[in-house]
Write a structure and sequence with these properties.
- The longest helix has 20 residues, at 129-148.
- The protein has a 7-stranded mixed beta sheet, sandwiched between helices.
- The chain is 38% helix and 10% strand.
- The chain has a domain at 3-131 and 263-361: Rossmann fold (3-Layer(aba) Sandwich), CATH 3.40.50.
- α12 links the parallel β6 and β7 (332-335).
- The two termini are 31 Å apart.
- It has helices at 63-81, 102-113, 129-148, 152-168, 171-175, 181-184, 186-200, 209-220, 239-245, 253-256, 258-261, 304-307, 346-361; strands spanning 3-4, 15-20, 43-47, 94-100, 120-124, 291-296, 332-335.
- It is of the alpha/beta class.
- The protein is globular and about 70 Å long.
Amino acid sequence: MHYLSPEASPASFDTLVIFLHGFPDSCYVWRRQLHYPIGARVKLIAIDLPGCGGSDNLPGYGPDAVLNTVSEAIVQLKLRYLGTGSGKKPAATRCVLVSHDWGGAIAFRIAAETTGLFDAMIVANSIYPLGARNQVVHHLERSRHFFDAGRLGDALPHLRAVLAQVFKSSYIFLVALPLPLARWMPWLALALVKLCHGLAAQFLPQATPDDVAVNMALSCGPSKAECFSKTPEGVGYGSSVLLRAQTTLHGDWDERVRLYREGLGLDKWVPNYTNLESRRDEQTGKFCCPVDIVFGLKDVALDPRIVLENIEQYFPDHDFDPTVQTSENKHITKLPNSGHWSILEDEGAVALERVLQRIVDRS
């Protein structure tokens, strides 16, 4: 697993903050967050997900493979920087997980199905797969109820919410086409990546040609030449990273889309990694740690009626007040002028920094 950390890190710290990216990004998508001023007090780290950036490929990308690999990486980072495992640790040390897109879906599942791995979580523009599925079922059932009662006007809003999410998720049909699509038609994979970059930049200043090239390089991962580089300690990239650098479109996008194809969102997961003392019953769906959500309402991929409504029911009991509406919930920050890549935009980056600051300052 490859990760980034600021060169100027505090000499001592009691909090480790780990960032998880989504598709089609790498850990470099967090380069703004890695320079947050709070980095003078805490250790900031951004991980490349398996098969992305400088991290090695996995044999499969289902929940057992991906969730266990990411969880084990968190355990090892805690051992390295906090001197602790996931279970027995001094109360003074904390681990905070910050995530976006697929990184958020992974974080949501870990938080709902295990305990002790991290102490708080921030998710930006992502989806809790179980919660979204239940919300779709809820809207469909309410729509059918009103249709049966002849109340068409009441049924349509529920149906529109589901149809809006289906429309926003239509790109998934592209990545679900038979493999190896990117090897047969690399221009199609390139078009998908460029589309994502265009959507990410829609609320940002006009990108220069150099900006476009840099963004593509950061998504595709290390070049062939970089794959032969080593750290002063003699650590280099794995062989699968070199293989990805030699594909027709660097990055081996047939590997990347397996995140969508192999049941990572909802298939059963059997946690199987070291130093985890206890786990939750995944059937409850509740998170085992405090959760904060930052969400750009102009998201092109996720509809807030599906991913935000009723999400509080999965918060830890001490964080959930049923009398408080979602729009007023202190754990949900809605950004009216931000899109799916809110972490890149001023509004979203500032909001995320504010939430992280609050968590770090919390005793």
